[in-house]
């Protein structure tokens, strides 16, 4: 597979339609910066499916469309078409030429097309899978991608090796399997949850179903007993209903008799009650007058009693006031004497307080003096302690200074001894190195002489190698061309053989007969009988298309046997030419037509089939032009390419399909192709033999180059030079170290003297500080003893002062209490004098009120005697009327009692009737309730069992007890789910079904895990094999681009995890030891990345490779190596190089110059260097 053409229109800076024809080997693209070179690379990347807009150096898809310039309007469409030649059938398609097109409209629409047929991006990705042609493969390499490869950005090294290993399909399968596994695990989790939920429901439904079965069992028994109870109850209802009806009639008659008697007696009673009411009214009037008189009498008696009580109260008040006045005189004298005594006590206690306050003042002065003495002693202690601490600190500093000085002197003396020892060692080493340097210099002179001789011999041999290599390159070019032809013919042969084996294009019935051993295997098909030159194939196939799948049999019997076989196996229909019939009607007449070629003249056919060919093509001619159509006289005229076919009265034609012209002469074509392949193979083998002979000559010359001896001598010279240089450096270093050591010894001796002088002064100060510290310690002890004595005296004085102060406070409290007591007694005396004055005034007022009350009482007693006499007279009259009234009322009461007894008797009768009626209603209600219960509980009509006899003789009470007991059992069961049994059965079926699904999912999961494991093992093994091959090639190519002494390697970062392990690149040019690739120069990094890419090419060469300014960091020498390597690899791959380097430009076959003569619009200029030679 190779790139053929690239067509760009409206993409970025390419406003006009631009077509680039790529050379088979190396095509160069050059031009100044900003002219649009890299836009060509972007267009290729875009058309093969790049989706990341950043990789196209744009912000959005709209920016890919030509945006216009000062003189041009913007384009509405970006279109790129890339055409491949599928020479080796690397692409999985039958087309020999494949064109992919990608379009994007400014409106936002886009489309992909494959051979001008609309398709999806996925179709294009599948087409290029594992061919090395993808957006992220090593087919398109820019300078920044080289840097990404060095830095291993986004694991780019591994991705390239995976593409070379062809494990993309395994990763896809693994990803799909993992996706299915994840879905299966999710389904399993859901089924587990579902099973758990259903299991819980099953447990509940199982208990409910058992409960429902128990309920139905009791309910059936309950129904039978209830029906029996209803029958027994109906018998009792009939008897009770009859008795109650008879009793109701009897009591109704009795009630009517009582009602008549009561009515007669009540009428007589009403007449007597009218007379009684008049008598009662007169009696009430008399009673009212008597009550008024009696009320007046009571009022007078009350007035009399009140006057007597008032007089008595006034007497008691007079007595009480007189007694209070007598007591008040005695209290007044006692209180005056008590106040005098309290005044004397207050004066005496105040004298005691004055004496105590004077003593208190004296004690306070003593405490103040002791406190001042104590404070003075404390200050003395603090000053002594401070002096002691300062002296102690100075002594510590002096001791530390002396100790540090002693240590420093000791260290300096040890360092001085060590330096003296090193000086002696360096002097001995200097003499040894001087002798060794003289020996190495002599050896170096000898090796330089040997190198001159070897180089002269090598120059002579290289001339011979160049002559042989020129011949070898010519032979290799011929071999590549002949190999391409051989591969094309082999592919054509394989394709044709595959079509013959699979009977492609023929009906199923024809294929069945061809593959069936029970029918004749040597019977040919018409398409295999004929052979025609390629230029006439399509034309004849258009004419013979209906007959090409006909079998050619000898006679009718052969055809019938085939038809019977097809019919027996239901394989469809087939058609046959009968040779014996055709030969019987053969005609030898030949027809010619001016300006046309007879179809029989361009075919090849065996003798036995010539009559058949004449029958089919005898009247067929091939026209060179349309003029023949006008002169045809009933013949069939066909155009050479098959565009039209003219019959006697008809004309058909149009475009010819891509796959038309593939049936006629397949077998004969296969035989001829086999001969061509064999002939071409022999030619290729001869070229390979010649190349091997020349190659052996080159090897012989190379062996005679003594390259190894030359390189060995150069290495030895370089090694000796380095050793001499190293020895000289060592000698210079030793001399410098000797000088530095002497200077250091002098400095150390000076430091020792200075340290000893400075520490002598400090030692004298230390002795003085020790004596001073002892004196300060003694003074501190004396001051602390004085402070403790003062503190004790101060505490005793403070204690006495506090105790005396407490006594003064108690005395002051006592005086205050006596003063409060005096004030209280004075207040009480004042209140007593006021009360005595008030009581004397009340005595006078009470005497006056007593005289007035005595006069009023005498008048009230006279009026009361008159009212008593009038009361006696009216009381006698009232007693007589009252006696007559009560006699009549007693008579009426007796008659009312008689009537009430009769009414009560009537009420009893009515109550009995009501009871009888209630019993009848109860019977009816019981009957209705029984009817309703039987209907509701058992859906049974009570009337349907009225005439039925009882099944047992069980008493009614036992039946009722049984019914109550069963009803209680039903109630004890609680709520019963009537559908539980059916629901349990359905749920159990569902549980079993889901359990089967779970088993299937577990099996599927195990299968997926096994598939993933197998895919991983296969992919890992292929990756490891590819890695080892790339590693070996990388080491070889790296040394070719650098030198044989340079070291490189590929290392798996995590060998335990091959599927995910990164790849580390080790590159160490001679004389350098970088810890990472980033420490190499730009050119070295580029060469290292190039070596890795070419190592991958050796494993699986990509059909083409685009290099976008990859050689920019390289110098001229390395560019030469780079271009030589590209030229070597161009034998198997096609290279397109975008470059600025003149050396690179000189190595390409065809160069395209990109210019921007019109601002913003890119143009192409083509130069073919091969035509200039």
Question: Could you give a quick summary of the protein structure above?
Answer:
The protein has 1173 residues and is α/β, with parallel strands linked by helices.
Written overview of the protein:
There is one protein chain. α18 (about 1115-1130) links the parallel β20 (about 1105-1110) and β21 (about 1135-1140). Helices cover about 70% and strands about 10% of the residues. The two termini are about 30 Å apart. The protein has a 6-stranded antiparallel β-sheet with strand order 2-1-4-5-6-7. It has a 6-stranded mixed β-sheet with strand order 8-20-21-3-22-23, sandwiched between helices. It is α/β, with parallel strands linked by helices and about 1150 residues long.
Write the layout of secondary structure elements.
Layout (H helix, E strand, L loop, with lengths): L1 E8 L8 E4 L4 E5 L6 H11 L29 E9 L11 E9 L4 E5 L2 E3 L1 H8 L11 E3 H9 L4 H10 L2 H335 L5 H8 L10 H4 L1 E2 L1 H11 L6 E3 L2 H14 L6 E3 H6 L11 E3 L4 E2 L5 H8 L2 E4 L4 H4 L4 E4 L4 E3 L4 E3 L12 H39 L2 H232 L17 H18 L6 H62 L5 E6 L10 E6 L13 H18 L4 E5 L7 H14 L4 E5 L3 H6 L2 E9 L2 E8 L5
Parallel strand pairs: 3-21, 3-22, 8-20, 10-11, 14-15, 20-21
Antiparallel strand pairs: 1-2, 1-4, 4-5, 5-6, 6-7, 9-13, 12-14, 15-16, 16-17, 18-19, 22-23
Helix pairs in contact: 3-17, 4-16, 5-13, 5-14, 5-15, 5-16, 16-17, 17-18
């Amino acid at each position: 597979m190779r790139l053929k053409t690239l067509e760009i229109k409206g993409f970025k800076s390419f406003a006009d339609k631009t077509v680039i024809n790529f050379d088979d080997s190396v095509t160069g693209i050059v031009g100044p910066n900003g002219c649009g070179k890299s836009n060509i690379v972007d267009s290729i990347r875009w058309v093969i499916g790049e989706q990341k807009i950043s990789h196209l150096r744009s912000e959005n898809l709209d920016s890919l469309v030509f945006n216009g310039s000062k003189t041009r309007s913007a384009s509405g469409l970006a279109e790129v078409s890339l055409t491949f030649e599928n020479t080796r059938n690397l692409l999985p398609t039958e087309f020999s030429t494949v064109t992919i097109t990608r379009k994007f409209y400014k409106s936002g629409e886009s489309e992909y097309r494959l051979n001008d047929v609309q398709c999806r991006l996925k179709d294009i990705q599948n087409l290029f899978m594992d061919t090395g042609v993808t957006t992220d493969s090593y087919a398109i390499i820019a300078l920044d991608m080289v840097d990404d490869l060095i830095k291993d950005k986004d694991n780019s090294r591994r991705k390239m090796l995976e593409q070379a290993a062809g494990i993309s399909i395994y990763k896809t399968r693994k990803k799909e399997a993992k996706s299915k596994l994840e879905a299966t695990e999710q389904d399993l989790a859901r089924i587990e949850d579902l099973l758990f939920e259903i299991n819980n429901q099953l447990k509940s439904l199982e208990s409910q179903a058992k409960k429902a079965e128990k309920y139905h069992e009791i309910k059936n028994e309950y129904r039978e007993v209830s029906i029996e109870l209803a029958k027994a109850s109906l018998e009792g209802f009939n008897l009770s209903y009859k008795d109650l009806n008879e009793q109701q009639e009897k009591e109704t008659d009795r009630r009517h008799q009582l009602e008549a008697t009561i009515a007669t007696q009540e009428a007589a009673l009403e007449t007597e009650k009218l007379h009684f009411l008049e008598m009662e009214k007169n009696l009430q009037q008399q009673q009212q007058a008597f009550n008024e008189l009696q009320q007046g009498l009571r009022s007078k008696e009350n007035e009399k009693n009140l006057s007597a009580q008032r007089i008595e109260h006034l007497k008691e008040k007079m007595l009480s006031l007189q007694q209070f006045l007598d007591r008040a005189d005695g209290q007044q004298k006692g209180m005056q004497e008590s106040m005098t005594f309290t005044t004397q006590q207050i004066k005496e206690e105040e004298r005691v307080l004055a004496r105590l306050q004077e003593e208190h003042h004296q004690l306070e002065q003593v405490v103040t003096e002791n406190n001042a003495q104590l404070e003075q002693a404390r200050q003395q202690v603090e000053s002594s302690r401070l002096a002691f601490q300062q002296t102690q600190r100075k002594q510590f500093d002096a001791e530390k200074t002396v100790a540090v000085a002693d240590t420093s002197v000791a260290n300096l003396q040890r360092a001085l001894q060590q330096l003296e020892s090193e000086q002696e060692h360096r002097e001995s080493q200097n003499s040894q190195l001087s002798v060794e340097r003289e020996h190495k210099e002599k050896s170096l002179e000898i090796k330089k002489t040997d190198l001159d001789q070897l180089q002269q011999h090598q120059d002579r041999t290289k001339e011979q190698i160049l002559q042989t290599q020129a011949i070898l390159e010519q032979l290799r070019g011929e071999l590549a061309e002949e190999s391409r032809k051989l591969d094309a013919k082999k592919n054509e042969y394989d394709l044709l053989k595959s079509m013959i084996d699979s009977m492609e294009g023929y009906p199923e019935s024809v294929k069945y007969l061809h593959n069936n051993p029970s029918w004749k295997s040597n019977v040919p098909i018409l398409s295999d009988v004929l052979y025609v030159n390629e230029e006439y194939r399509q034309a004849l196939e258009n004419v013979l298309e209906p007959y090409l799948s006909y079998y050619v049999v000898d006679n009718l019997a052969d055809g019938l046997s085939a038809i019977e076989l097809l019919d027996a196996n239901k394989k469809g229909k087939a058609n046959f030419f009968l040779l014996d019939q055709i030969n019987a009607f053969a005609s030898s007449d030949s027809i010619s037509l001016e300006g046309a070629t007879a179809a029989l003249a361009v075919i090849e056919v065996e003798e036995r089939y010539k009559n058949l060919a004449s029958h089919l093509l005898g009247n067929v001619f091939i026209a060179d032009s349309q003029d023949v159509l006008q002169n045809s006289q009933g013949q069939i005229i066909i155009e050479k390419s098959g565009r039209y076919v003219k019959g006697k009265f008809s004309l058909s034609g149009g475009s010819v399909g891509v796959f038309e012209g593939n049936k006629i002469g397949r077998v004969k074509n296969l035989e001829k192709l086999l001969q061509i392949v064999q002939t071409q193979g022999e030619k290729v083998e001869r070229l390979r033999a010649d190349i091997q002979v020349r190659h052996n000559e080159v090897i012989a010359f190379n062996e005679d180059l003594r390259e190894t001896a030359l390189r060995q001598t150069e290495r030895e010279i370089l090694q000796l030079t380095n050793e001499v240089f190293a020895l000289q450096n060592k000698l210079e270093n030793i001399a410098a170290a000797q000088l530095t050591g002497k200077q250091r010894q002098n400095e150390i001796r000076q430091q020792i003297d200075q340290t000893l002088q400075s520490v002598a002064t400090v030692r004298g100060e230390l002795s003085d500080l020790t004596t001073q510290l002892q004196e300060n310690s003694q003074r501190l002890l004396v001051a602390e003893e004085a402070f403790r004595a003062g503190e004790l005296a101060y505490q005793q004085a403070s204690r006495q002062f506090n105790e005396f102060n407490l006594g003064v406070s108690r005395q002051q409290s006592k005086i205050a209490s006596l003063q409060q007591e005096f004030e209280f007694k004075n207040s009480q005396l004042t209140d007593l004098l006021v009360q005595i004055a008030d009581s004397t005034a009340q005595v006078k007022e009470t005497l006056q009120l007593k005289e007035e009350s005595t006069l009023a009482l005498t008048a009230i007693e006279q009026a009361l005697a008159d009212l008593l006499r009038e009361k006696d007279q009216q009381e006698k009259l009232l007693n007589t009327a009252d006696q007559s009234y009560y006699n009549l009322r007693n008579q009426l009461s007796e008659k009312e009692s008689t009537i009430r007894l009769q009414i009560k008797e009537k009420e009893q009768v009515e109550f009995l009737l009501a009871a009888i009626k209630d019993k009848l209603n109860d019977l009816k209600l019981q009957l209705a309730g029984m009817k309703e219960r039987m209907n509701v509980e058992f859906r049974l009509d009570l009337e349907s069992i009225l005439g039925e006899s009882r099944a047992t003789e069980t008493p009614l009470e036992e039946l009722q007890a049984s019914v109550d007991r069963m009803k209680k059992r039903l109630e004890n069961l609680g709520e019963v789910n009537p559908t539980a049994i059916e629901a349990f059965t359905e749920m159990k079926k569902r549980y079993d079904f889901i359990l089967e699904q779970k088993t299937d999912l577990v099996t599927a999961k195990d299968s997926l895990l096994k598939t993933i494991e197998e895919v991983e093992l296969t992919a890992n093994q292929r990756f490891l094999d590819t890695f080892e091959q790339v590693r070996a090639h990388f080491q070889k190519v790296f040394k070719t681009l650098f030198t044989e002494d340079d070291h490189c390697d590929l290392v798996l970062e995590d060998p335990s995890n091959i599927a995910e392990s990164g790849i580390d690149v080790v590159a160490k040019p001679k004389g350098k030891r970088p810890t990472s690739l980033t420490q190499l120069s730009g050119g070295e990094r580029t060469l290292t990345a190039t070596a890795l890419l070419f190592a991958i090419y050796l494993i699986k060469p990509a059909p083409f490779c685009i290099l976008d300014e990859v050689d920019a960091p390289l110098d001229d020498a390395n560019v030469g190596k780079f271009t030589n390597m590209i030229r070597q690899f161009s034998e198997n791959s096609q290279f397109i190089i975008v470059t600025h380097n003149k050396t690179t430009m000189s190595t390409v076959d065809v160069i395209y110059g990109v210019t921007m003569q019109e601002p913003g619009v890119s143009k192409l200029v083509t130069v073919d260097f091969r035509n200039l030679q």
